[in-house]
Specification:
With about 120 residues, the protein is mostly helical. It is built from 4 helices and no strands.
Length: about 120
């Protein structure tokens, strides 16, 4: 089992809810079913001055937790829409989320250009 190189935090990565996840109604927040509610936030967020090898190992362990989470997609979208600048959210690191956001922005620009070109061609 991965042993983090830093002191353990006794805080869940996503806030816990008093009621069990299986009792959740459809209007309850997505994070009530997040697997990481039961894990320590230290797995998902880097301590200051964490060595690169330790960070990579911790991030891979966090991603394994995310991979078995029923709300991974909702978590990822939350982190992309906020945007969350730190930690592993929805199976993506902060750097990976920046790449996804940059690709989305480029795609939006391309679609706008194509839309404008289509309107110009139709008018001409």
């Amino acid at each position: 089992m991965l042993q983090p190189p830093h002191s353990s935090l006794q805080v869940a990565a996503v806030p816990a809810r008093r009621a069990a996840a299986r009792d959740r109604d459809q209007d309850a927040p997505w994070h009530t079913e997040a697997v990481c509610r039961r894990d320590e936030a230290g797995l998902f967020f880097a301590p200051s001055k964490e060595p690169t090898a330790a960070r990579l190992s911790r991030e891979e362990a966090a991603k394994r937790v995310c991979a078995r989470c029923p709300v991974m997609v909702e978590c990822r979208e939350h982190a992309l829409l906020q945007p969350e600048p730190y930690g592993v959210w929805g199976g993506l690191t902060a750097a990976e989320r920046r790449v996804v956001l940059a690709r989305r922005r480029r795609r939006e620009v391309e679609l706008k250009k194509a839309s404008r070109s289509g309107r110009i061609a139709a008018a001409g």
